[in-house]
Design goal:
The complex is a heterodimer. Chain A is 75% helix and 2% strand. Chain A contains 18 helices and four strands. In chain B, 78% of the residues lie in helices and 1% in strands. In chain B, a hairpin with a 2-residue loop joins β1 and β2. In chain B, α4 runs antiparallel to α10, α13 packs antiparallel against α15 and α13 crosses α18. The longest helix of chain B has 45 residues. The chains are: A mainly alpha, B mainly alpha. The interface between A and B is large, with 37 and 39 residues.
Chain lengths: 460, 608
Amino acid sequence: MAYDISQIMMLVILLLPFAGALLVKLLPPGYSLRAGFLILLLQLACFPHVARAVFSNSAYSVSAKILSGVFRCDIISLIFATTSVFIGVFIYLFSMGYFIGEKEEEQQKFSFWGLVFVGSMMGVVLSDNLILLYLFWEMAGLCSWKLIGFYRKDDHLLKADKAFLITSAGAGFMMLSFAYIYVQTGSLSLSQIAQSSVSPLVFAFFFLGVITKSASFPFHTWLPDASVAPTPVTAFLHAAVLVKIGIYGLLRVFGVTLSVSGWVMWAGWLALLSSFIAGILALREEDIKRVLAFSTVSQLGFMIAGLMIFNMAAIRGVIIFYVAHALGKGCLFLCAGIAERVFGTKNIMEMGGLMKKMPALTYAFLIGMLSVIGIPPLPGFFGKLEVIAGMLVSRNVFFALFAILTSVLTLLYLFRLFLHVFMGESRSVLSEDRKGFKPMIASVAILATVSILLGIALVM
Amino acid sequence: MNINVWFLPVIISFGMSLVHLVCRGMTRKYRKWLSLLGGIAVLAGCFYSLYVNSMYLTHWQSMSILFAVLISSISLFSLSYSQWYNPEAGHAYDSLLFLFIGAMNGVVLTHSFISLYVYWEIMAIASFFLVLFNDTEEARKSSVKYIIMTGAGSIFLLFGILGIRLMEEQIIWKHLFFVSMLIGAGIKAGIIPLHTWLPDAHPAAPTPVSAMLSGVMIKTGVYVFIKFYFDIFQPAWSLNWEAVLMLIGVCTLLGGVFLALVQHDIKRLLAYSSISQIGYIFLGIACGTTIGLTGALYHTINHAVFKSLLFLGAGVLIKATGSRNLEDYGGLSKKLPFTFVVTTIAALSISGVPPFNGFVSKWLIYQALLAHGSSIAVFALAAALLGSVLTLASFIKVINDSFMGVRRKDIAVTEQEKSPFMNVPMFLLAIGCFLFGIFPGFVTERIIFPSIGEYVDLNIGLIKMASLYGWLAIVLFAALFILGRKALMRARATETFVGGEIFSSEATAFDGGHFYGTVKDIEPVKTFYSAEKEGSLDIYQLAGKALPGVGGFFMKCGLRFIEAAYAKGNEVLNKGVENLKLLQSGLLAKYIIWIFVGIIILMEVIRR
C-alpha cells in the first residue's frame, strides 16, 4: 500500500527538526534563528494533514507503515505535539528579539539545540515503543543540560549538571520499570501491551522517572535552579518541552495504556504535596523567574494528581490544563524576560510600575496569569474544573480540597508578582533601550490572544 | 420561557460595554448620554423580560428578576451620578462599568451553576479594575487585596458548587460543601471575619463604583447564599446550621456597627455599616422561615436603596471638600441643602426610624426572630436591637460632623448640586426610601412573596400603624415648619455670645469624632478594636504573614534536608567510584577471575 499523505507528514514532523538542526549548523550563524523559526512554522503547517487523518480514523491512530509499530500518532500525541511546536514557534520569534546584541555563534547554538529539543519531544510523543520513548526522553535531557548551561559559567554548569543528573537518574529507574513491563507483559510496544495490568512496583519505578523529569517534590530543586538560563530556554523548559514530557509519559503509559493493580494513591498525594509546597515557596521567592519556576512545579503537581485519579473527566481536564498551562506559562515566562530586560534585574522588589509604561505587556501577562490561575472564560479554568470534577466524581473529596487550596495559593503568588512588577511606582531605572522589543511583544501578544481564543472555543 | 428575552439585561450591558470600547474617540458630552441611555435600556430590558415571561416564572426566577431589577436600577442611578462625579473618565471606565453591570445581572439571572461561576469571575475582574481606577497607592493595595480575597472565595464557591452537583447522594460531605459555599458567598457578602476587603476597597473606588459595590454587588453574595441554602442545602440535606448562621449574623452585625462608630473616613464608615446591615440580612436568612426570608429580602432591597444613597451623598461631600475625613467637614447644611436632606432621610432609613423603609424590614426580622423562639434567637434579637441603636448613633455622628456645627473648611459652592445627573438619582432614591416604607403590604405581597413562593399572614397592621404615626409626626413637623416659617424669618440670626466671646467656635464645638472615640475604651470592645487595627482579625494579612513562615518551615525542614541529601549523595558516589578503582588493578589474571565469577552467577540465574 502506498503511503498516504498523513503518514508522510508524520514522518516529516518527526524528522524536520533534526534536519533543520543540521541546516542551522550549515547556514551562516546570522540566519540561524530565522531558519529555526521557519522550520518550526513549516512543521506546524504539517499538522493539519495528520490531524485530519487522526480525526477521520475511528481508531484515532496513524502508523507509519515503514516503521510499523514504532511510531504512531493518536489524538493525545497530536495535542501534545501541536502545543509544543506552536509554543516553539513563538519562542523562536521571541528569541529573534532577545538575542540581538549577542554573538551570532550563541544564536546558532540556541537555534541548533532548541530544534533538537523540539525534535526529541516529537520523538517522545510519537513513538509507540518504550525503548524509543526512553531514547528520546534521554535526548531531551541532554539538550536541557546543554541549554541550561548556555552561557557556560561555572555556577550555571553546576546547575545544568544537577538537572541532568537528577533527570537521568530518574530515567534509569524508568528503564528498570520498562524492563519489568517487558517481563510482565512480554512486549515493549505500547499498542500491544494496551489494557494489560502491572504491579504497583512497576508503577513506582516509572513514577520516579516522571517526577524527576516533571520536577515534583522531592526532586524539584533542579527546575528553579535552571532559571539561570536565558529566557527562551526557560520558556522551552517550562512551557513547551521538558517538564511536559513527564506528564505525557505518565498519561501515555499509565493513563491510557496500562492499568495498575494495587494502591497507587500515594503518588497522587505526593504530587499534591509537591504542588502545595511549591506554591508556598513561590510566595517567598523574590526572583521573578524562580517564582514562575515554583509555579510550574505547583501546576505540574496538580496535573500529576489529576492523572492519578484515572478517570476520563480528570484526564480530559489534565489535557486541557496542559495546553492552557503551556500557553499561559509560556506567555508569563516571555513577559518575565521582557520585564528583566526593561528593569535590568530579576528581583521583583526592585521592579514596579510597568503597567503604565507597557500596557500591551501588562495585558498579556494578566491573561496568561488568569489562565494559569483558572479564571473563566480562559482555558485554564476549564482544565481545573474538569480535574476537580473528576476528583469529586471518583469520591476523592480530600484530594479535591487540597487541589482547591493549591489553586488559592496560585492566585496569591501570581497576584503578588503582578503587584510588585506591574503596579505601584518603579523602584529602579527603566532602560529606554527598546531594541528588538517588537518581536518579543508580538510573541507574547499572540500567545495571550490564542489563550483567549482557546477559552472562547471551549465555552462554545 | 423565552430564554433570549430572559438574558436581555446581560446582553444589553455587554453590548454597551463593547460599544464604549469601540467608540473610543467619542467625547464626554455624547458619552454621557450614551451611558445614561444604556443604563435605562438595561433596566427596561429587565422589565421587558419580566413582562414577557411573567406567566411562566417559578419563584426562583421571580427572585432572579427581583435582584436583576434591583441591580439595574441602582446601576442606572450610579451611572447617571458618575457622569457628574467623574467627568474626565475615559472610555475604559464606562466600558468596565457596563461589563460589571452585565456580569452582576448574569449572576442573578443564570440557571446553571457553572455559568453562574463564570459571571461571578467576570464580575470580580471588572470590579477589580474599577477599584483600581483611581490608581493611587491606596487603590492599588486594596484592589489587589480585594481580588485575592474574592478570588479565593470564588474558588471555594466553585468547590461547593461542584460538590453539590457531583456528589448529591454523598451525605457525609454535605457540611464540608456547605462551609465551602458559605466562605465563597460570605467573602463577597462581607460577613465577619471574611469582611476585611470591604472597608479597604469601598473607600478606594470612585464613589459611584462604591455605591454599586456596597449597594448591589455584595447582595449577589446574599443572593447566591439564599439560592443554595434554600434550594439545595436546607430541603435536600437538612443541615442544622441555623444556630451557627445566627451567630455569624450577630457577629457581623455588632462587629460592623462597632467598627463603624469609630471611623473618621466617611466611606470607610459606610463600608462598615454595610457589613452590619449584611448581619441583619443573615439573621433573617438564618431563621429559615418565610417571614425571616421576607425580612431578609426586604432588607436587601432597602439596603441597596439607602446605602447607595448614602454613598452618593458622601460623594457630594468628597467632591465639595476634597477630603474623605469627617473632621474636615462640618456646617455644610447651608451650602449643600439638598444633599443634607437626602442624606438625613437615608440615615434615618438605615437606623430604622418609621416611616422610612429600614424600619419595616428590621421589624420583619425582629418578628421572625421572636417567632423562631429558640434562646439563641432571643439573644440575636437583643443584639439586633442594640445594633440598631448603635447604627443610629453612628449616623448621628455622620450628620452632625458633616452638616451641623462649625465649618472647618471653606468650600466653593459653585457647581455643587446643580447637575441633574446627580440630583435626579439621589432624589429618586430618597423617594424610594419613603415608598418602600409606607407601602409594606404592597412590597411584601406583590414583590417578595412571589419570589419566595409562599404566602403568609405577616400581621403588617402593626407596621402600618407605626408608619402612620411616623407620617403624622412628619406631617406635623412639616406643618409646623411651614406655619412657623414666617415667625422664623422674622427672627434675627446672630452669633451666640457667652461672656463677650463667640460661643460656637472650634474649641467649643461638639466634635463627634472625639465623643465617639470614647467607645474605644470600653473593656470587651477595646480588644476587638485593637485586634481589628493590628489586622489580627484580617485573614488576608494573617495569610500574608503566616504563609511565608510556613514556607520558611518547609525550607528549613524539608528542603535543606533534600539539598543535604543531594550533596551527601554526591560525596558517597565519589567515594564509591574511588573504591571501584580498586577493582581495576590492571592485572589480566584478576579480570579473568571476575569474568568467571560473573559467568557462574549468570548460569545460576538462568538455571532457575
